[in-house]
Give the backbone structure.
Amino acid sequence: MSIQDNFRLAMRRYIYSVSIMSNKDDNGDLNAITVSSVTSISMDPPSLLICINKSSRIHDTLKIGTKFCINLLNKNQEGLSNICSDEDSYEDRFKDENWNIESVPFLKNAQANIFCKVDKLTSYHTHTIVVGLVENSNHAEDISTLTYVDGKYQ
Ligand SMILES: Cc1cc2nc3c(=O)[nH]c(=O)nc-3n(C[C@H](O)[C@H](O)[C@H](O)COP(=O)(O)O)c2cc1C
């Protein structure tokens, strides 16, 4: 088996939390993408990173200083995760009534919302590592996080 195939199978053993990264770009257009690559970096400064594929629509809208939100999904939001990871469902991504799109778009009923400003962009082959400086966050009381393992939601 190739290094890539073995690596893919190894990574499928990880349990991922599923989030949607959302923003409003310079043209006022709304973007949302399902991501599992969210990792906190530090508390001082409060910061996290996400790895974004260069072929995704949101990619080129992520410039230094622009704002975005990481919406950690709950177990009832599998459908929205599918919509935001299906390139043919782009028009449906903001149909959910729980989006607040007044400013930086965020999901009112997510497990958590982490509001960030892009602080650093590091290109690595097919992906860009996006470092977000956390400006604000909130979270639900109950813990019911949508998780993904072996290519399936749990
Ligand atoms: C559970 C899950 C996690 C994902 N995580 C990431 C990720 O961390 N980074 C990424 O670039 N794409 C990730 N994807 C793939 C994108 O969501 C998918 O390719 C999406 O269609 C790209 O956005 P676009 O259709 O707007 O171009 C993930 C997909 C799923 C189902």
Notes: DSSP finds two helices and twelve strands in the chain. The chain has one domain: 3-153. The mean pLDDT is 98.
